[in-house]
Amino acid sequence: MADSQNQIELKNPAVAAVLGFLIPGAGHFYQGRTFKGAIYCFCILSTFFCGMALGDWKTVYYQSWQGKRNLGYFAQVGVGLPALPALVQNSRFHKQAAPGNLARNDLDAGYFQSQPYQMDLPLEASFEGTLLDRGNDGKTISGALEGTIRLKSIDGEFGPEVRGAFEGTLDGKPIEPLELADPIGIGLPLGGNQRRALECAVIRKEGGQRTDTGHIEGSIPRPFLNWFEMPLSESELDDINKELGKRYEFAVVFTWIAGLLNLLAIWDAFEGPAYGQGDEEEEKPSSDKEPSPATT
């Protein structure tokens, strides 16, 4: 290390290593080694985000629930700041998924909760899904729904109830608003999927009484911070593997490689370049030494 410091000013190696961990190449920029820092920054981050994109942005997460661990995260976290949100998201997910906060303690059963006081109501969101209903004339109505869903909690005869409406299209054609009510199942606010599952009953008036005649089933979008680098359930992992196949495995490996490469970059920022034999500075002859006697 002493020889390398004589040729390249490493400044504070510990600071350079920390900066290099947080952002690939930042330690080298701190030391003034801009070309090498730019190479590390571009290559490592492009590899990492390429893996994220290939895996539909679901490749990086930390899972520590009921004995489950995804050890691959310890390779991914080597890339620094881009992978650190997974630790915060894991903590948020655990607080939400505590048994006392769930209608049923089964994290892989669709994340459904049904009690109004556990749902973030009132709710208004875009909805995509399907309809299966018995119309006013008794004929079956089915097809693809797309539009807006609104839900709210009201005081019913036997306690809180959920009521709402859907407005939009069925198979691309406008339909009359659908009245919605319990039973309602909705995915938890936090999850590894960009969309949140939702299903509820369709209500129509028959003989002067409101009757459950069918149901809608689909999903609403989750905000970015409620799904990015969130832990994936077994069902979500199964779904993404079915959808992406081997591509998902390649995507995960890309993120591993990026994290491990950054460990080498951090070491280079801390220790400096590895010099080979002959790169050392030559010792200058001392002027105090007496000249050797001339030979005749």
From TrEMBL:
Transmembrane stretches in the record are: 12-31, 37-55, 250-270
Give the InterPro entries listed for this entry.
DUF6677
Q: What is this protein called?
A: TM2 domain protein
Spell out the Basic and acidic residues composition-biased ranges. 284-296
Q: Which residues form the DUF6677 domain?
A: 15-98, 242-276
Region Disordered, as annotated, extends over 274-296
Which terms are listed as keywords in the entry? Membrane, Transmembrane, Transmembrane helix
A Pfam family reported for this protein in Swiss-Prot or TrEMBL: DUF6677
Q: Which organism is it from?
A: Gimesia chilikensis
